[in-house]
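Session log. Operator J.P. requested a structure for one protein chain; no other inputs attached. Running the standard single-chain path with C-alpha cell output.
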Amino acid sequence: MDFSIFLTHVAFALFLMLISWISTWWMVKVAILDIPNERSSHRKPTPRAGGISIVITFIVGICIIFLVADKAQIKQQYFFGFLFSAAVMALISFYDDIKSYSFKIKLLTHILAIIVLLFSGIVIDAMAVPFFGVVKLGLCGYFLTFLWVLGLSNAYNFMDGIDGLAASTAVIVCAFFGWITFHQGSHFIYIVCYTILSGAGGFWFWNRSPAKIFMGDVGSIFLGFVFACMAILADRYDLSHTSILVMPLLMLHFIFDTVFTMVRRQLAGEDITQAHRTHLYQLLVRMGLSHQEVAHWYGLLAILQGLAAVSMLELVGDMRLFIFVPFIFAYTLIAYKIISKARSLDII
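Structure written below.
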C-alpha cells in the first residue's frame, strides 16, 4: 500500500473514532439509566446503550466505503445484506435497551435479523472437514450459519458484564483480524475492521473502569453479529479468502466462557434463560478482582489468541485445528480452578 494511502486510512480511522467519542459523550448526557439489581456488577445507576456510538461509526464508515472506495467493494447483494441485517439487529437491540424484552422476544427478533442475512446469500456454503477436505454443505450450510451468527451474537452479549471487557476485546479482535485480512489481500474486511476498531476505541474511553456508560445490547449483540458475519465474508466473498477458523480463534475465550457456563448451569439444573452472575469473568470479580484486572487478563488472552491466529496462517489443512487444542486445555484447567474456588467461597 502506498504510504499516502495508508495515512489517508489512518486519518479516516481517527475521524471515525472522534465520531464515536462524541456520540458516546452525547449518550452519557441523554442517560438511559441502568438501575442496579441483585445480578448487577455495578453499584449506582449508570447510563447504558452507549454501544449505539459503535453502530453509528460502523454505518458512517461502511457507507463512505460504498460511495468512494471502489476497490473495497464486495458484490452489492452481500454488501447490502450485511449492512441491512446489522442495522436491523442494532435497532432491535437498541429498543430492547430502552424497553427490555423478555428472553423469548429477544430470541425471536434475533432470528428474524439472521433470516434477513441468510436471504442475502451470506452463508457458510463449504467447509474444510478433517480427513475429508473441503465439503459442500448445501442446506446444512444455512443451519450452520444460523447457529454461528446467533451463537456469537449472544455470546458477546453475555460477556458484556463488566467495565471495558467487551470494548477492549473488540479493539484487539479488529486489530488482529484487520492485519491478517489485509496481508491476505483484503480491501473490504480490512476497512470494516478499522471502522469497528475506531468505534469501539472511541466508546472504550467512556466505558473503561470505572465506566461512565455501559455498552448495552445495542453494542454487544451488534458486535457479536458483525464479527460472525465478517468471518463468513472474509472466507467466502472478500479478496482475502481468510480461513473461517480465524474468527473463532480470536473469540475463543468468549466462546469458551459462554459454552462452559451454559453447560455447567444446565447440568446443575438451572434455567439457562434466566440472568445470572456466574460466568467465569463474573466469578473472578465476585472473588475479589477488580473490573480492570479481569478486563486486562481477558485482553491478554485475546492478544495471545491473536498471535496464534497469525501463526495459524502458516499452517495448512487440518493442522490449523491443532492451534485450538492448547487454548482449550488451558481454559478448561483455569475454569476448574475458578469453579473450585467459587464453591469454596459459597458464591455458586
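Operator note: Residues 58 and 195 are 6 Å apart (CA to CA).
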